[in-house]
Amino acid sequence: MLDFFTELRGTREEGIKLSVLSIINQKGGVAKTTTAVNVAHAWAKLGKKVLLVDLDPQASATRSIFGDREFDYTSFDLVLNQKPVKEIIQHSEGFGVDVIPGEILLSGVDIQLAAQFGREKFLRKSLVPVKSQYDAIIIDCSPTLGLLTVNALMASQEIIIPICPEYFSLKGIELITDTLNNIRSGLGHSVHIKGIVITRFKNRKVIKSVIEKVTQTYGLRVFSEFIPDNIVVEEAHHNHLPVAKYAPRSKAAKSYDALAQELLV
Amino acid sequence: MKQNPLFTDSTVTQGANIQTQFEIKNVTLREGEALCLKVVIDGVMNCLELTRKDDTTFIGFIWVEHRKEISYQFFIQRGGDVLYATEMKKGVAIHIIMENWLPVAGFKWKEGFSQLSTDDIELAVSSGQDSDKESADDVIGDLIDKWGL
Predict the structure, then answer these.
(1) Separation in Å, CA of B24 to nearest CA in chain A
(2) What total of structural domains would you count in chain B?
(3) Domain span at residue B78?
């Protein structure tokens, strides 16, 4: 298990430690995908070689990057059919990253995986041939807890949890920590919570209260850069561009760049 | 025993031998104390002393059949006397069993660590006898003194 990760960590530049990072929250609408694609782009701008894996059946990251383009092979084929990863990877010039696209068929993967030997480690196994070629692998998870999410976590060293302060509940964080404990107990793999990203924020008073709850109850790190609720984020999605290219002077663009820097530490 | 099948290791068949790691957190030991684990498998008791993982976390390993039903209990002993113990819990053997240190108040013990049996650590919460009550009060006093409960 260690070998899978040791080849990836800090391979490209001394002092910078990137990893296989899942972006996870069982709650939808908390800007998981927006965070995934924009952090991936920000790291690419810093000269990192990044692979983004879209493991969400809604394929929002794929649509955000490639629009309605159809792909012969996706993460469905990677996880379920063990299609060679190199035949699935697509490159996005606009985002400067490699992408394993997602598709709606992923919604049925759990049923097909359920009885298979090694069902929880297919993604990790599939990524082995390319892992040493990347500085970081970012996995955009589905907003549900099932075998797909377990596969993402089994392939990850770390997770970040985006939360929307207006709809925040400690129960959501508890569900994620319980899941990680279950992964550790039942499957013998430890995943570190790198921190909480506050997204779609409007009101600093609400944020203060959320930070207090998260740090006091769980002792988790909350990244100091908050991502504002800004219309340019949605517009960038529809234009298949990272926010930093669509509206480079916007607060959201600057926030994602700063967050990407913060995630490197 | 309910267990989410999502977190069952599909690569280990039920009944295959695995090394289960027991981990207990938030424990502070005083001079001369040792943290131990009692595991009962098919009525047979196994005891082992746990090793320190970090300041307040201790771990130990036991080979056991995967998903075998077991009972386990953590306890602190000094010179063969059990000072504090957690509740006896039931579980299934998986890769790691994690607990937080939560000693039960008012248990009594028999002297002699080496002669411990499954009945050696027992709860005395329901006896209602004065002597037991005094004994329980003493232990609770110790717990408050030690753990700030």
Answers:
(1) 13
(2) 1
(3) 16-147
